[in-house]
Amino acid sequence: MVLANVATARELGNRKIPTLYRVHAEPDERKLDILTTTLRALGVGVDLPAEISTRDLQKIAPLIRDPAARPFIETLIVRSMMQAVYQPVNVGHFGLALKQYAHFTSPIRRYPDLVVHRTIKAMVSAQDPAARAYETSQLDVMGLHLTQCEKRADEADRYVDSYLKCVYLRDRIGQTFDAIITSVVDFGCFVQIIEAAADGLLHLDNLRDDEYVKDDALQAWVGLRSKRRLQLGAHVRVIVTSVNPVEGLIDLDLVAEPGNFPTGTEPAKRRAPEKHRR
Questions:
Q1: pLDDT tens digits, residue range 18-38?
Q2: 3-state DSSP assignment of residue 231
Q3: Cα–Cα distance between 229 and 214 in angstroms, integer?
Q4: What are phi and psi of 206, to 5 degrees?
Q5: Percentage of the residues of the chain whose pLDDT score is greater than 70
Q6: Are 44 and 64 in contact (CB under 8 A)?
Q7: In angstroms, rounded to a whole number, what is the distance separating the alpha carbons of residues 248 and 199?
Q8: CB atoms within 10 A of CB 68
Q9: What is the pLDDT, as a whole number, of residue 107?
Q10: What is the spatial distance between Cα 190 and Cα 251, in angstroms, rounded to a whole number?
Q11: What is the mean pLDDT of residues 197-215?
């Protein structure tokens, strides 16, 4: 499939026939800086070169020692890259490490495939009733529209995925799960429940086993008494307290480590600044 797509793009490019390419630009510097900083906070040391290649990003996965963190880190790597788009100007496909690529064939039929088919038919025989030669200006408009449609479909897919995960957890309110911290923010932590690969919020109000202060350098909330670190990549036990499938929201409580509460006491519930409360 990939070879067919490459051959098609190469032939049309060599003949200078306008068509829609599937292009994937190189990651921008800001996203790579965020990725590097996050990986280092997770204990994954990387030193990406100024001129990055696809192979440089591929080398990150073998450095991940924690199997539970692998899906999360792989998602970070994907998010560091640009979105693939359809356009008549070929800039290559960074993700596939290819200089020429077009969607000519695939397990699913897409409209961009049909555009390429019609272009090839026009190249072979202008008499073919299915043939059509496109102007670059037409392809510009078409590429933008098709990219937007693809993005909308991806958003719908993510929404359904989140909705179904929430429905699954809605029937398990009060149950305890293993999770990994995926983001440390001013009002708590976002975590991913490993069993369901579902993202939830561990609000600062629900860190009741200690008085926590945020350490930006460590990307962590640190307990003043216990010195417990709730930092990026840390494993925690959480309790599902509420779920809203429509909005895709999952609220969680932190399971205290044994011995974190002083005998007969429990720290007062700490309130976050009003602007951070949901």
A1: 999 999 998 888 888 888 888
A2: strand
A3: 10
A4: -100, 10
A5: 92
A6: yes
A7: 9
A8: 14
A9: 76
A10: 10
A11: 92
Nearest one of 15, 23, 25 to 101, comparing CA atoms: 23
Residue 201: strand pairing partners: 190, 251
Write down the domain spans for the chain.
2-165, 172-276
Specify the DSSP class assigned to residue 24: B
Tell me if the pTM is above 0.85: no
Contacts of 147 (CB under 8 A, 6+ apart): 83, 85, 86, 87
Instruction: Give the tens place of pLDDT for each residue, 224-240.
Output: 999 999 998 899 999 99
Q: Token pair of 144, please? A: 């933008």
Distance of alpha carbon 120 from alpha carbon 124, whole angstroms: 6
How many CA atoms, within 13 angstroms, populate the side-chain half-sphere of residue 179?
A: 31
Q: How much of the chain exceeds pLDDT 90, in percent? A: 61
Query: Quick one: CATH architecture of 172-276?
Result: Beta Barrel (2.40)
d(CA 224, CA 226): 6
Say if strands 235-244 and 188-193 run parallel, antiparallel, or are unpaired.
unpaired
What contacts 185, CB < 8 A, 6 or more positions away? 276
DSSP letter for 275, please: G
Give the Cα-Cα-Cα angle 26, 105, 102 (nearest 5 degrees): 30
Banded model confidence at residue 93, pLDDT cuts 50, 70, 90: very high
* 73 token code pair: 């880190």
In this prediction, residue 262 carries a pLDDT of 47
Radius of gyration of the chain (CA): 24
Q: Is 222 exposed, middle or buried (0-12, 13-18, 19+ CB in 10 A)?
A: middle
